[in-house]
Amino acid sequence: MKIDVHTKEKEYSVILERGVLAKASQWIRFSGQIFIVSDDGVPAKWVHQLQEQFPQAETYIFPNGEGSKNFATLQEILKAMQKAHLSRQDTLIAIGGGVVGDMAGFASAIYMRGIRYINIPTTSLSQIDSSIGGKTAIDFNGIKNSVGAFWQPDLVLADPDVLATLPARQLHNGLAEAVKEGMIRDPELFAIFEKEDAEDHLEEIIARCLKIKKDIVEKDEKENGERKLLNFGHTFGHAYEAYFGMDGYLHGECVGLGMLTVLNDPMLKERLRKVLQGLQLPTECQCDPKKIYQLMLLDKKADHDHISMVQVDTIGQGYLIDWSLAQVKERLGI
Ligand SMILES: NC(=O)c1ccc[n+]([C@@H]2O[C@H](COP(=O)([O-])OP(=O)(O)OC[C@H]3O[C@@H](n4cnc5c(N)ncnc54)[C@H](O)[C@@H]3O)[C@@H](O)[C@H]2O)c1
Ligand SMILES: [Zn+2]
C-alpha cells in the first residue's frame, strides 16, 4: 500500500508492505551518498538487509533506549556524518524505532541546515505513529522531546515483517497508540481490538493508523488544532511516564493508563479496560496523585488555570476540551 502525504514543505510516500525492507533500493533512488543510522537493539539482520543494498553506505549505531535521546548522542551522529563527508545532496536513512527516528530525523534537520531523510520504522510504535508527521526531538534537561524540529521525511518504508523480532511488550506498547487512534477517529479500528486478535490484523491496524495520521497532519502540520487530538491519553500519560521514569512503564503503556484516567463515561472506560487487558497493557498503577498533578502542571498543554485535554464520549469522536485545575485534581482524587 502506498500513502502519499502532502505537507507544506514536502510531499512524500509511505510504503506499507511486507518484505519492503529487502527491496528498499527499488524505492530509494536518490543520487548521492547514503548514511545509515540505527541503534544496537535493532536486530542486526534488519540493518544488514539494508546495508547489503547500499554497500558504499557508512553506518552509525548508537546504544538503544530513551537514555540515548540527548545532545551527546546527537553530537556523535553529526560527527560521524561530517567524518563521512556527507553533503546537502546526500541522504540519511534511519532504521529503528521511535528513538532512532527522532534522533536521526533531528540530525538530518540540522546537519547543513537540513538534508534528505528516509525513515524505515522497525517497531509497532514507529510504524503506527512516529514515522510520519515530521516531529523530531531529543530529551533535554529532564523534559522529554523538549528540543527538536519539524522535519518531514522524504520517504517512509514500513515493513510489518520486521515486527516478528519485536518483544511482545514492545509490540503491545505500540498498539496502545493504535487503540488511541481508534478511539478518537475510527470505530472500525477500535472494533478490531474489541472483537479480534490484533496480532492477526497488524497490517490493517498500521494502515488505518497511517491514514488517520496522514489526514490529521495534512490539515494541521504544526499542531495548532486538529493534531492535538492525537494527544488523547497523553496529558495524564506523560505525567505517569515522568513519575515512573525510564525504567518504569513504556510510553504506550502510560498512554493507556492516561486514556483510562481521562474518560468520563464508565461504560466506555470498561470497554477500553478490556481492550488494554487483552493486549497485556497495564490498567492500573500505584502512584502518588499529588505528584502526578505537579507533573501535569509542567505539561506544555497546561496554562495558569486550565489544561487542554482530549475527551471521547463516543468511539471515533475525539474532541478538545479545557479542564480547570480543580477538575484535574478531582479526577486524581485529591
Ligand atoms: N516523533 C514522533 O512523532 C513520536 C511519536 C511517538 C513517540 N515518539 C518517540 O518514540 C520513542 C519510542 O519509540 P519506540 O517505542 O519505537 O521505542 P525504541 O525506539 O526505544 O524501540 C524499542 C526497543 O526495540 C528495539 N527494536 C527496534 N526495532 C526492533 C525489532 N524489529 N525487533 C526487535 N527489537 C527492536 C530498539 O532497539 C529498542 O531497544 C520515544 O522516544 C518517543 O518520544 C516520537
Ligand atoms: Zn504517543
Question: Would you mind describing this structure in some detail?
Answer:
The chain has helices spanning 24-27, 44-53, 71-83, 98-110, 124-130, 168-185, 187-195, 202-219, 234-244, 251-262, 266-278, 289-297, 325-332, and strands at residues 2-6, 11-16, 34-39, 58-62, 91-96, 116-121, 135-140, 143-150, 155-158, 306-312, 318-324. By secondary structure, the protein is α/β, with parallel strands linked by helices. The chain has two domains: 2-165, Rossmann fold (3-Layer(aba) Sandwich); 168-332, Dehydroquinate synthase-like, alpha domain (Up-down Bundle), CATH 1.20.1090.10. The protein has a seven-stranded mixed sheet with strand order 1-2-9-6-5-3-4, with helices on both faces. A hairpin with a 4-residue loop joins strand 1 (2-6) and strand 2. Helix 6 (168-185) packs across helix 7, helix 9 crosses helix 10 (251-262) and helix 9 (234-244) crosses helix 12 (289-297). It is globular, with a radius of gyration of 19 Å.
**Major beta-sheet overview:** 7 strands, mixed
- How far do the termini sit from each other? 49 Å
Strand portion, in percent? 15-25%
In one word, what is the shape? globular
CATH architecture of the largest domain: Up-down Bundle
- The percent of residues in helical segments reads 40-55%
**Rg result:** 19 Å
Instruction: Give the strand tally.
Output: 11
Bound molecules: nicotinamide-adenine-dinucleotide, zinc ion
What is the CATH topology descriptor of the largest domain?
Answer: Dehydroquinate synthase-like, alpha domain
Low-confidence stretches: none
With strands numbered from the N-terminus, the spatial order across the biggest sheet is 1-2-9-6-5-3-4
What is the CATH superfamily classification of the largest domain? Dehydroquinate synthase-like - alpha domain
Mean pLDDT: 95
Number of helices: 13
Number of domains: 2
Order of helices and strands: EEHEHEHEHEHEEEHHHHHHHEEH
Structural class: alpha/beta
- What is the chains' assembly state? single chain
